[in-house]
Design goal:
The structure is a single chain. It is built from ten helices and twelve strands. The chain has 321 residues and is of the alpha+beta class. The strands form four sheets. The protein has a four-stranded antiparallel β-sheet, covered by helices on one side. It has a four-stranded antiparallel β-sheet with strand order 8-7-11-10. Strands 2-3 form a two-stranded antiparallel ribbon. It starts with a helix and ends in an 8-residue tail after the last strand. One of its GO terms (biological process) is RNA catabolic process. GO terms for molecular function: ribonuclease T2 activity; RNA binding.
């Protein structure tokens, strides 16, 4: 009876000790007090309310319904007003830095990564951009017989997250791309980007802007306009025609580079790298120089590159080779 009384007393105190509080900053929610594990990469979001179970040594135990485990530990500063003021200053600073950076465009080497969408979907069948319409009746969609945009990456590759707040970096690294800010693009460019980058439906464009676009040297509109135009130039070239003719067949790096030379000038092919996975050509990486507005001149000024992949199959639409 005494034990039952103590249990009921503890349960009652725990129940009444609970309260809801709004987070003031983005924080990871850990399974334990030592912060060594975060199952599901759960993150708190500013201005959302959470149930607080208890406080202990600068930490708070929360009840997050729908998560497993549901009880999570976070730093107390995630809910403090002082932290909120600090975060506001950080956001203001981020906005100012971004605007300043947008007005200081610099020429730099770039890497244009183009995916062969059919090969991508062989190993990413559950992705939204890989779902085929029930009314396609065997006809290939735009993305299934052209190269699609993966990204345009300022070089060197280590140059990422320029002037980006740490909370956004954390979201990106945990692949919570749906919570990243939408790049500011006009309606026409949004439509064009959705066509050449099927991954927009999975918020790939938000990831690419935060990680790489912020280092481009100008705003999102200019960054994605450049990426779209360069992708379209490849898809209008002999390179794209060559891949269409050889779907289901194995082609060599030498053949691909020859097509680039024929389309964009002698030596262009030396700047092209094949990326392969499980015997399939998954991507083309084009190493572009800093000078020029079109693909031919940018390839001419790019760096010659060694390609580890020397041969691969051009995958057909649908699953299986």
């Amino acid at each position: 009876m005494y034990r039952l009384f103590l249990f009921l007393l503890f349960f009652t105190l725990s129940l009444f000790g609970r309260y809801d509080a709004a987070a003031v900053k983005m924080c990871p929610a850990f399974d334990n007090m030592k912060h060594t594990k975060n199952t599901g990469h759960v993150v708190l979001h500013p201005e959302e309310s959470y149930t607080v179970l208890q406080k202990h040594k600068g930490q708070m135990l929360l009840l997050l319904k729908g998560e497993n485990p549901a009880q999570r530990w976070v730093d107390e500063e995630c809910f403090s007003e002082e932290s909120k003021n600090t975060e506001s200053k950080k956001k203001i600073a981020y906005t100012k830095h971004t605007k300043k950076y947008e007005n200081s465009a610099k020429h730099q080497d770039l890497l244009l990564a183009l995916s062969w969408h059919n090969a991508f979907c062989e190993t990413h069948r559950s992705r939204k951009e890989c779902q085929r319409s029930l009314f396609s009746f065997g006809k290939n969609s735009y993305r299934e017989d052209r190269f699609v945009l993966h990204g345009l990456w300022p070089q060197p590759r280590e140059k990422v997250y320029c002037n980006v707040a740490q909370d956004l970096v954390s979201l990106d690294k945990h692949r919570q791309w749906n919570r990243l800010p939408e790049p500011e693009l006009d309606a026409k460019l949004k439509e064009e980007l959705s066509k050449v980058m099927p991954g927009v439906i999975s918020n790939l464009h938000r990831h690419e802007w935060i990680k790489h676009g912020t280092c481009y040297g100008s705003g999102a509109q200019n960054y994605f306009e450049k990426a779209v135009r360069l992708t379209e130039q490849v898809n209008r070239s002999k390179v794209s025609q060559f891949f269409l003719r050889n779907m289901g067949k194995s082609v060599t790096l030498q053949q691909v580079r020859y097509q680039f030379d024929s389309s964009f000038g002698k030596g262009a092919g030396k700047r092209v790298e094949l990326r392969c996975y499980n015997g399939l050509i998954s991507e083309l990486w084009l190493h572009l120089g800093s000078e020029g507005d079109d693909l031919a001149s940018m390839l001419k000024n790019g760096k010659a590159i060694y390609s580890r992949c020397q041969r691969g199959i051009v995958d057909r639409a649908g699953y299986g080779r």
